[in-house]
Amino acid sequence: xxxxxxxxxxxxxxxxxxxxxxxxxxxxxxxxxxxxxxxxxxxxxxxxxxxxxxxxxxxxxxxxxxxxxxxxxxxxxxxxxxxxxxxxxxxxxxxxxxxxxxxxxxxxxxxxxxxxxxxxxxxxxxxxxxxxxxxxxxxxxxxxxxxxxxxxxxxxxxxxxxxxxxxxxxxxxxxxxxxxxxxxxxxxxxxxxxxxxxxxxxxxxxxxxxxxxxxxxxxxxxxxxxxxxxxxxxxxxxxxxxxxxxxxxxxxxxxxxxxxxxxxxxxxxxxxxxxxxxxxxxxxxxxxxxxxxxxxxxxxxxxxxxxxxxxxxxxxxxxxxxxxxxxxxxxxxxxxxxxxxxxxxxxxxxxxxxxxxxxxxxxxxxxxxxxxxxxxxxxxxxxxx
Amino acid sequence: xxxxxxxxxxxxxxxxxxxxxxxxxxxxxxxxxxxxxxxxxxxxxxxxxxxxxxxxxxxxxxxxxxxxxxxxxxxxxxxxxxxxxxxxxxxxxxxxxxxxxxxxxxxxxxxxxxxxxxxxxxxxxxxxxxxxx
Lengths: 385, 133
Fold this sequence. Notes:
The complex is a heterodimer of chains A (385) and B (133). With 385 residues, chain A is an alpha/beta fold. Chain A contains 13 helices and eleven strands. Helix content of chain A is 33%, strand content 18%. In chain A, the strands form two sheets. A nine-stranded mixed beta sheet of chain A has the order 3-2-4-7-1-8-11-10-9, sandwiched between helices. In chain A, strands 5-6 form a two-stranded antiparallel ribbon. The longest helix of chain A is centred in the first third of the chain and has 16 residues, at 25-40. The model of chain A has no long low-confidence stretch (mean pLDDT 97).
């Protein structure tokens, strides 16, 4: 099969640090931006599209475009979807490129949450009705997990398998924050944060970030660099539906089928999955919603090494994911995208490189899947696929 | 948690209801849907003609979690339960749930609203207690 793609990812760069004490956020954004451009073999003056989200300091993209030295912009996008922003940006960049609005789109994200400081913005309209509850992010995800356990019999041990798989991969990533493989027993023994999620069911918090460069097919052909095809993408916001909240699925149930249809492929064709792993339950639900298994059987699917690279049924998060490698600024979608690019360029760690990796799915989530969340699915393909 | 200017004029009756131990929600006069959370326009049909209705105050637990690690005002709290309560009348809303001696909170537990009247400017948080585990 040789399929046309309207856009290619030509550059990708993940910041090597996980704790940053001596740099500013703009400095780190520049490090990842320039790293991705250099990876692609492109210059600042080649960039005509710029994408970032609310993690960028200043007003939208204005400050960072100035700081970075982007002098030829004809397209900008500061879509806010929490951690899903960057997979959403891949789709937006591909569409802008297809429409001829730009041909080299730089997508950046970085942050230093360890430095503290609150992000601005007025509270949402829901705040008077939810703000006094003391609901934390882990608790909001635990609501989805408890529902799944009750209705489908999913166990804590099954959720733990997801962390075990991520940790098994992370040992081969010299930059990962947590490199020690863990067992199901260790996950179950870790302190309960919000029932049924233990500490080891929850992702890490890191400083750092990453960037990618999305280009037109013409630019891709001109580069001396393997690129990755953007074959399909979809996004949505799934929220509490004015009181009709449905915890049985995530936004991936909507965006997955759309992205697969756009790419003309099915879940059975996927060789590698980069799935947002804010919590183990996020992965389990996404696997079902994307169509890798039936609704309710995610627990059985992740058992017996299904997620392990290189030979599992569906190798996942081979960098260690947000559970073990990196989750910069509480937004994991960029790093998810970058590892999928590595796999398709055969640049993952040798121990976890999926052989003959042709097709990958990136699933991003942002916000709280139980209450209100953005979601985006991107299907990527090897350059010659 | 402060009140003005976050609370819309039309939501005051909802909060007054919580202080009275009642659940009062607006119902759209045009499409007949209950509106959660209360707001000025109907999110189903866009009508701005909404009438408050006092509901039964009863529901069941759609999902729940016991939060062991609180943040902010809850940083030093003992574990507490947050749930989606599905009201008998339909809407599912986030609330606190308590259980008396011998009662256990689980998916499907029936619950009833309890009065919450915090001091000063603080807005009441919807709180239910288990009727049947």
